[in-house]
Design brief:
This protein has helices at about 1-35, 60-85, 90-110, 115-145, 150-175, 195-215. The protein has about 230 residues and is an all-alpha fold. The longest helix is centred in the first third of the chain and has 32 residues, at about 1-35.
């Protein structure tokens, strides 16, 4: 068990970086090959993240969904390693939320947008859990003693802010364009800027950058403070 613990702690940061790179590359490659139902190219300004994994439309949907599954599981393992070396309950709670977020992200790949109800549940869980994890990490780092730079707490707050904007602004600015529109048999013309889709991408991008920096800046316990506030 001690050996397994050491492996998880030692490989966790690298796995987090691999996961982020995998998901980002898969998104770019899938988007470049994408041709929508109306023959349009993919744009993060007016196409949702889920449309990349929609098997009936996206040519490389399988690639994107596989990347979400593998990347999500790698994030979960990475967060587990981080939690094992955390020196406080606050750190372990934050890492536990990160593990749950990684598993939820993997479930998004398992349930692509073709199955709307299952996909909606998986995607909602992933977005909510990553936001809660970011908020918890911000709180943990802000308390001091985590070994992380306080600047990382600011990046965590950006993830939360992007999520709040995603939940609030589309209903105010474009209430007629909900995510159900893309599954409507006779949808209205897609706007040049679909705010819900653009802000969904903002949440994903800030979350991936945050996970990458969290992994890259993971402190060694030998260099971190010997005791953290509980």
């Amino acid at each position: 068990m001690d050996r397994l613990r050491a492996v998880l702690i030692g490989s966790g940061p690298r796995l987090g970086l691999v996961a982020v790179t995998l998901v980002a590359l898969a998104a770019v490659v899938t988007a470049l090959a994408y041709v929508g139902a109306d023959g349009e190219p993919y744009s993060p300004l007016n196409h949702t993240v889920s449309e990349l994994g929609e098997v009936a439309v996206s040519e490389l949907a399988a690639t994107f969904n596989a990347a979400l599954i593998i990347g999500g599981l790698l994030i979960a393992v990475s967060m587990l390693g981080l939690g094992l070396q955390a020196g406080s309950r606050a750190g372990r709670l934050s890492a536990s939320l990160g593990v749950a977020a990684g598993i939820a992200l993997a479930s998004v790949g398992l349930f692509p947008a073709d199955d709307f109800d299952s996909h909606k549940a998986a995607a909602s869980a992933a977005f909510i859990l990553v936001t809660l994890a970011a908020a918890s990490f911000s709180w943990w780092i802000g308390r001091g003693g985590s070994g992380y730079s306080p600047s990382l707490a600011v990046l965590s707050v950006l993830v939360v802010a992007a999520m709040v904007a995603f939940l609030v602004l589309p209903g105010i600015v474009q209430p007629e364009y909900t995510f159900a529109v893309e599954f409507d048999p006779d949808p209205p013309p897609r706007p040049d800027i679909w705010l819900a889709a653009a802000l969904e991408w903002a949440v994903l991008v800030t979350a991936l950058v945050w996970i990458a920096m969290l992994s890259y800046l993971t402190p060694k316990r030998s260099k971190a403070p010997k005791a953290e506030r509980q």
